Request: fold
Amino acid sequence: RGAIAMSRFVLRRGLVAGLLLAAMLGPVRAQAPAVTVFAAASLTNALQDIRKAYAAKGNATPITFSFAASSGLAKQLDAGAPANIFISADLKWMDYTDKKGLTLPATRVTLLGNTLVLVAPADTAKPVTLARGMDMAALLGPHGRIATGLVDSVPVGIYAKAAFTSLGVWNEVAPRIVGAESVRAALALVERGEAPFGVVYATDAAIARNVKVVAVFPADTHPPVEYPFALVQGQDTPAARDVFAFLQGPEARAIYTRYGFTVR
Reply:
């Protein structure tokens, strides 16, 4: 009897231990690997809403984002940072990743567009007429500054420099530029009243607090604001391709439109 009782005890302990192990391992096995998206900072709010829509469809794959200037993200990819999808706010930095063999050109698609605008704090905002040879000294006063992205690398800054150059006032504007590391950082300077003007995208201005658009840059003063998407070389897993397709699908397109992006 003692031997039988001991056998039953050992069996029960083994069964309990097995159930506990299964309970511990179950969630780990069920957790799908995350898909990482490197995306231009101006897409922050839209992509966060798209992630919610993706999860609401019953998709188990987690999506993680890294939002920053396209220039910084492209250089991170070049340095070996892991990501599955890259979304740039201009063609230049997607071209850079293509030439470096970091992204898959066959998957590249330019899906979105945006508008370049001049903004000011809401309590001081007055309409501005952007015209060739305009009097920037009168607009800015003796100490006024214009916040935008770094003009040699961050897309919004590159667009801003092109626009002011086209208007024939870059030499006057250049010493007044406060270059930020992303469009959202530039917008924050205007929101906090640290710069009386900023050059940002219309979609960023639309969600900002205490900021108003005082002028829209004519489309012919700068290259089109375009957003190319691509899968990253060697990281085009089935899960990544599924997320990539969703980012271009009808539900995502509706969200981009709601935030003010033009969708192709």
Remarks:
- The chain is about 45% helix and 20% strand.
- The longest strand covers residues 225-231.
- Confidence is low (pLDDT under 50) at residues 2-7, 18-22, 25-29.
